[in-house]
Every structure is written in C-alpha cells, then in structure tokens.
Amino acid sequence: MNQYVIAIDQGTTSSRAIVFDHAGNIVSTGQMEHEQIFPQAGWVEHNPAEIWDNVREVIGSALSKASLTRHDIAAVGITNQRETAVVWDRNTGEPVYNAIVWQDTRTQPIVDELAADGGVERFKEKVGLPLATYFSGTKIKWILDNVEGARAKAEAGDLIFGNTDAWVLWNLTGGPDGGVHATDVTNASRTMFMDLETLQWDQDILDVFGVPASMMPAILSSSEVYGQVHSSQLLREVPVSGILGDQQAATFGQAAFQPGEAKNTYGTGCFLIFNTGEEIVHSKNGLLTTLGYKLGDAKPHYALEGSIAVTGSLIQWLRDNLGMISTAPEVETLAAAVKDNGGVYIVPAFSGLFAPYWRADARGAIVGLTRFANKGHIARAALEATAFQTREVLDAVNADSGVPLSELKVDGGMVANEALMQFQADILGVPVVRPKVVETTALGAAYAAGLAVGFWKDLGELSANWGEDKRWEPQLPVEEQERQLRLWKKAVTKSMDWVDEDVK
C-alpha cells in the first residue's frame, strides 16, 4: 500500500501523469496534448477546460497502465507551465477567457505603459523580474481590461486567478465544492506580484496593475499538504502535497539542492537555473531572480534563472509551419547530413528575445543564407540556436555568481538528441551530463510531494537516487568556438529593432 507517488506535469504542449517508485524510477505514464490556439500574431492561448479534462484522463491512464488504484498512491505532486494565466469564476469554475500562455506578447502595450514610470526594472528589486509580457501580472490585467464584465466581477470577489498549478489544484480538490485556492512560492515568484523577502503579495504593485488582492491564491511552501483529492475524483482522499513550477521542479529532480549547482531544461523553451541558496542575488546581466524551492517551514532557497523562449518549439515550427520534417527526431537526421551549419544561423525570436537581452522588439531571423544552404544546414542551425542561447545565459550566470560552472546537468525532451548535446558541450567548453531519469520535472514534483508525507525522509535520500546516464566532453577547438560565437552574436543583432508601431 502507498508504494508510489504520482506527479501531474501540466506543460505547455501536453499534460502528463507519471507514477514514480521510491527509487525515483518511472512506473507508468499517461500523456495527452492540448490545442495550441493562435488567435492572431503574437497571441498564444490554451483552453483551461481542455487542460483539466486531460489531467483527469492522464491520471486514469497512468494508474491503469500499472494496474494501480488510489490505495497505492501516497501523494500527488503538481508541476506546471509557469506564467500561463487562468482567470475563472470561483462560484461556477468557468474560465472567463482562455489561458494566456507565457509565450504570448499581446501585453506589450501594458508593459510600455507601466514602464513609462520607472523603466522596465521598476519592480525588479522587490520581485526579481523586469516588466515583460512573459509574466502573469500583465496577463491578468489584460483579461480584466478586455473581457466584458471581468473587472466588475473581480472587484466583487467572484473571480480568482492562478497559473495552471493553481487551476489544477483547485479542480482536483473540489473546484466550486471547497477547492483549495493556493499556489507555491515558485509559481508566485513568476507573477510580478510577490515580494522575494516576505513571500507575500505586494499590495502596492497589485494596486499599480489594478488587480484585486481577492483574486490571488494563498502562497504556500513547495512541500506541504494543501488538501486532499475530492471524493469525485479517481485519486479521492490522496493528499496533494507538492507544487513546483516546471523549471524549479526539474532543478529539484536533478537533486541540485546546494548553492552553485545548476541544470538546463530543454523543452518548448530552455531554462537554466542556478541555485543561490538562502541568498537573494540580483542579476546585473539580464537574469531573473526567482524562488528555487521552499520545504515546509524551512527557509526558502533562491535561484538565478536564464529563460529562453524558443528552443524545442523551433523544431515544432520546422515540422508544423514549414513541413520540413514530419517528426521532431528527424531534425537530427537532417542535421547529420551536413558537416556544419554552412554559415546559416537562426535566431528564433518569435516572442522577442528573453535572457539575457530582454528585447521585445526582436523577431525571428535566418541569416547567412546562400545558394549553398539546404535543409540540412537549416536543421543544424535550428539545433545550434538552442546551444548558442544556452551559452549566452551561462555566461551571464558565471558573471553574476563569480563561480564558473564546471559542468552542466541537462534534462528535458531534447536531451535525447546526441548531436545537440555534443554541440552544447563544444560551445560551452564544459562537460554536459544527462541523468538516468530525464523526466526530472515530474520527478521533482513527486519528490516535493513525497517529502511532505514522509514517503522520502530527506534531501540526502533524494540525492542518492540521482545517477549519471551519459556525459559529453567538449571537442571543438577554442578558436572555432570563438568564431562561431562571434557569428551567432552578430546574427542576434540582426533580429533586433524589427517591431515598429505598424508591425503586427
């Protein structure tokens, strides 16, 4: 009985439920993709009702594949796409609008308006984040300003907000029938509204944005019992006891618990997190200051983060928009057909440039094209774009921390791509290390949930579960590494200053 922990991983393109055993091994998985909704250029939405339906479906799938029932599950953990904002009616459970996804750029006018008084770093000292379309705060304001009747209902106390972790938690624990409206510190730190020191919502900033405090979920730790699954659900009466935003969850799953440890997750976007321990480090090099985790009543751990908007989604773009490949793994085959990128560089600034530039005026660019260039060169340039962007973020981490990383732990879907991992080691000049369990995001959420109920006793036990699968050593001569970086940085400059007032 109670031999397993289940993690719900509510991601950007799909929702998954993964069952883990005590050794941190995957027992079974259920997964369903949800629709990516693009109402117009720069807008990205998800249907919250579809996401919740899929979450219930994947829980059932994961349990049935392993012939398990709720009696076998000790705890439920949740991890999620951060910054994706859902606003819903607390009385009916109905969303007032689609979820506005973290990649969405429609709120740039709101950013510009708020930055007119104090610049984009107006709130950064307090919340660790620059004003940007990326974070939840501007999305909530957009919904209140643009959905008919939303502001009046919010001010009457009828509307509530959450990133998708809070949406899943609320529904899982009962929805309108007593659902728990809460989030953890890592998700709260991605809204622009949480004070990094007090770990509370900042009333002054809420007032500036025009967001009623009554909409906001309770801020709790990343590992404690929030409530039990509602009696109407398959996992009824199982405690929900862990929440971590997806990148923090991946860091936790990599057992990067100590200051100076870091990981890079290769998913829809790419996110490098560097643990700074109990110290709040304010970046001078374009990184975000964020919460790493908080276990129960213990002190919070902070982190520096380099967020890259487009990595895996660039491969999806080659597949879905251009039809260059029919499945994502084919990009590696295409890239292997050429010996180098043929002078082609792709800067995938589809949502502007994130870390370390934070340039909303940038847009995607393919540069260096000649008649020599073919599909192989473009495929290779797409893979290399991920590695180049990671190098720039790692340079910023090294500058901020003063302690150069000696190796990089990696995880996420793209780490199966051997060519990418080798080029990543080459362009970084340090070894790249892949763990045995690469589903570290879900594993981190499972760990947080299991710790809260005593399924695992301490961090040492979790560290003992981590094992190395493969290591890539740098092989590129320094001169060639420097040449490629110089050309990459030149390519980045070509993507900037593209958006004028009349550019949609």
Oligomer: single chain
Summarize the amount of helix as a percent range: 25-40%
- Class derived from helix and strand content: alpha/beta
Low-confidence runs of at least 5 consecutive residues: none
Largest sheet features: 7 strands, mixed
Mean pLDDT: 92
Structure at a glance:
Helix content is about 35%, strand content about 20%. By secondary structure, it is an alpha/beta fold.
How would you portray this structure in words?
The protein is an alpha/beta fold. Helix content is 33%, strand content 22%. It contains 16 helices and 21 strands. The strands form 6 sheets. It has a 7-stranded mixed beta sheet. It has a 6-stranded mixed beta sheet with strand order 3-2-1-5-12-11, with helices on both faces. Strands 4-7 form a two-stranded antiparallel sheet. 53% of the residues are buried. The model has no long low-confidence stretch (mean pLDDT 92).
What's the layout of helices and strands?
Blueprint: E1 4-10, E2 14-20, E3 26-33, E4 45-46, H1 48-65, E5 73-80, E6 85-89, E7 99-100, H2 108-115, H3 124-127, H4 136-146, H5 150-155, E8 159-163, H6 164-172, E9 182-184, H7 185-188, H8 203-209, E10 218-220, E11 223-228, E12 239-245, H9 246-253, E13 262-266, E14 270-277, E15 288-293, E16 301-308, H10 312-320, H11 330-336, E17 345-347, E18 365-367, H12 375-401, E19 408-411, H13 418-428, E20 432-435, H14 440-452, H15 459-465, E21 468-472, H16 478-495
Parallel strand pairs: 1-5, 5-12, 9-10, 13-19, 19-20
Antiparallel strand pairs: 1-2, 2-3, 4-7, 6-8, 11-12, 13-14, 14-16, 15-16, 17-18, 20-21
Helix pairs in contact: 9-14, 10-12, 11-12, 12-13
